[in-house]
């Protein structure tokens, strides 16, 4: 685990055309310093993966307006989101589907079959042969995560816990970058850890939302 001296150093290695996952549950929990650094790097043709709530935040909106994002994959239905640039291709997924695709990437599964409920029967309990759709794993070239605490080994404590979307993003990312208010001098106990340090590449100490 490397401690980055700046936002630019933290995002070094993200290439044009990369799939970049942005964690967070809302504007106050997203890794805004890392998002700003990606925008300032001038990267193009990016595929951004995030929640609909994060998509509403100012840092992500500013990133989209900069013109470097070509595709979006978002958890939600898009009901509250307005004014996205027309050049961006958007795919909305239920949060459970997004998590499942991230888990597949973490397990190095390229694709999988997901059950499809018959029309008019959300429970899928109708008689007859079950139907399936093919889903691709959502492998991210980089994941931008905000952690509440990080120790010297890179172990993370996340606000969303070990089973949240942020933890899945961290494990599915080829390059996992973490923003934290402060580094923890003591080693975290295994029971406290949401994401083990083996998944973490760089940590950027940055204060709370400015």
Helices, strands, pairings?
Blueprint lengths: L1 E2 L3 H4 L8 E4 L9 H9 L5 E6 H4 L2 H8 L3 E7 L13 E5 L1 H12 L4 E6 L14 E6 L3 E7 L2 E3 L4 E2 L7 H8 E8 L2 E2 L17 E4 L5
Helix pairs in contact: 2-4, 5-6
Question: Explain this structure to me?
Answer:
By secondary structure, the chain is of the alpha/beta class. It is built from six helices and 13 strands. Helix 2 packs parallel to helix 4 and helix 5 packs parallel to helix 6. The mean pLDDT is 88.
Distance between the termini: 26 Å
Count every beta strand, where a strand is a DSSP E run of 2 or more residues.
13
Helix/sheet category: alpha/beta
Strand content: 25-35%
Mean pLDDT: 88
Low-confidence stretches: none
Order of helices and strands: EHEHEHHEEHEEEEEHEEE
Using only CA atoms, what is the Rg? Answer: 18 Å
Shape: globular
Q: How would you write the strand order of the largest sheet?
A: 1-13-11-8-2-3-4-5
Biggest sheet features: 8 strands, parallel
Tally of helical segments: 6
């Amino acid at each position: 685990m490397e401690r980055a001296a700046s936002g630019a150093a933290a995002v070094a290695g993200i290439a044009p055309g990369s799939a970049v996952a942005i964690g967070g549950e809302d504007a106050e929990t997203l890794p805004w310093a890392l998002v700003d650094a990606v925008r300032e790097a001038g990267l193009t043709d990016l595929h951004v993966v995030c929640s609909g709530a994060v998509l509403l935040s100012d840092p992500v909106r500013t990133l989209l307006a900069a013109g470097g994002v070509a595709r979006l994959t978002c958890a939600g239905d898009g009901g509250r989101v307005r004014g996205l640039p027309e050049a961006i291709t958007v795919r909305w997924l239920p949060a459970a589907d997004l998590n499942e695709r991230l888990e597949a990437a973490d397990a190095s599964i390229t694709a999988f079959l997901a059950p499809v409920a018959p029309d008019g029967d959300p429970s899928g309990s109708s008689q007859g042969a079950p139907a399936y759709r093919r889903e691709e794993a959502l492998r991210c070239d980089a994941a931008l995560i905000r952690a509440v605490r990080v120790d010297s080994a890179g172990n993370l404590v996340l606000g969303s816990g070990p089973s949240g979307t942020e933890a899945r993003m961290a494990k599915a990312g080829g390059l996992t970058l973490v923003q934290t208010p402060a580094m923890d001098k003591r080693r975290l106990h295994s029971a406290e850890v949401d994401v083990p340090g083996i998944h973490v590449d760089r940590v950027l100490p940055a204060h709370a939302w400015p």
